[in-house]
Amino acid sequence: MTQSIQDAPLIVAGRRFASRLLVGTGKYRDFEETAAAIEASAADVVTFAVRRTNLGQNPDEPNLLDAISPSRYTLLPNTAGCYTAKDAVRTCKLARELLDGHNLVKLEVLGDDKTLYPNVVETLAAAETLVNDGFDVMVYTSDDPIVAKELERRGCCAVMPLGSLIGSGNGLLNPATLALILEHAEVPVLVDAGIGTASDAALAMEMGCDGVLMNSAIAHARHPVMMAHAMRKAVEAGREAFLAERMPRRQSASPSSPFAGRING
Amino acid sequence: MRLLEICFREAAMQIQLNGEPSHFDGEPTLAQLVDSLGLSGRRIAIEVNEEIVPRSLHAKTRLQDGDSVEIVHAIGGG
């Protein structure tokens, strides 16, 4: 007899998502590959960046939003490349205009271009401004439980600590601090940044994260579409393992086959 | 001829468009600017002097000398 697993959808700021895998659209060869990978990932939430339009070039060049339809996916504009709260707020306002009033954003304010580590002082300031302006803010941050709580207090609808540096593929370098964030959070916690392969995503989900956001792990795999599918299964497997509640760890062995009735007994 | 050129220069206005100086005769509206750039109907957002100008106001918003205009769109990102 199988026991059905009752999972709730991921709910962020009142929006319900069947998939707990969120994916980016950067670093792909072309929009065709982007669309195929996102399809294979089964993600509902898809991130993108806001940049100056190239002027004087081919006006018919394809647009990301033609490949990734806002009617099919929940688009999550990011503030990547912003180093100040002011620039991040400007970028979010441009994104809201670009998406006809859609107010869900991924806030990230970076500290320097070598580590892309979050500048939490600017991030906290931007979060406060954006929440007061009516944005639903999913926030990229360091894996610091105190900062995570401060961001939650400022009204962020999801806290997204890094597993390791953006684009590094180093996985979860500090599961202990992630566990502390999870223990105290009252909003969804998603690992954003650092995922390298399927086991990283599964581990984050097994620990009880509400979701995982990734870009490079899929786009920079040799076969992105296949990796997107692997990530889909990893996130699902990790989530189910979390809900199923793993066996306790023990120091000694425990045979799976009974001792009684052995022919040498 | 030279005098004419000077007069013309005085009549033209200069704005910063996506960080680059750009010259226009008269004072076009944002909608005219977008059209002249071949961007009509594209998914873009516009900021003038660091303030969003909603799409519904592009036809009514006239650019002025010295304005700083940013035109952005969506690109791939994480």
Short description:
Chain A is of the alpha/beta class. Chain A is built from 9 helices and 10 strands. Chain B has helices at residues 2-11, 30-36, and strands at 12-17, 20-25, 45-48, 51-52, 68-76.
Question: Which helices and strands appear, and what pairs or packs with what?
Answer:
The complex is a heterodimer of chains A (265) and B (78).
Chain A: E1 10-12, E2 15-17, E3 21-23, H1 31-41, E4 45-52, H2 64-67, E5 74-77, H3 85-98, E6 104-107, H4 120-132, E7 136-141, H5 145-153, E8 158-161, H6 175-184, E9 190-192, H7 198-206, E10 211-214, H8 216-219, H9 224-244
Parallel strand pairs in A: 3-4, 3-10, 4-5, 6-7, 7-8, 9-10
Antiparallel strand pairs in A: 1-2
Helix pairs in contact in A: 1-9, 3-4, 5-6, 7-9
Chain B: H1 2-11, E1 12-17, E2 20-25, H2 30-36, E3 45-48, E4 51-52, E5 68-76
Parallel strand pairs in B: 1-5
Antiparallel strand pairs in B: 1-2, 3-4, 3-5
Describe this structure in words.
The complex is a heterodimer of chains A (265) and B (78). Chain A is α/β, with parallel strands linked by helices and 265 residues long. Chain A has helices at residues 31-41, 64-67, 85-98, 120-132, 145-153, 175-184, 198-206, 216-219, 224-244; strands at residues 10-12, 15-17, 21-23, 45-52, 74-77, 104-107, 136-141, 158-161, 190-192, 211-214. In chain A, helix 1 (31-41) packs parallel to helix 9, helix 5 runs parallel beside helix 6 and helix 7 runs parallel beside helix 9. The longest helix of chain A has 21 residues, at 224-244. Chain B is an alpha+beta fold and 78 residues long. Helices cover 22% and strands 35% of the residues of chain B. Chain B has helices spanning 2-11, 30-36, and strands spanning 12-17, 20-25, 45-48, 51-52, 68-76. In chain B, strands 2-1-5-3-4 form a 5-stranded mixed beta sheet. The termini of chain B are far apart. The mean pLDDT of chain B is 88.
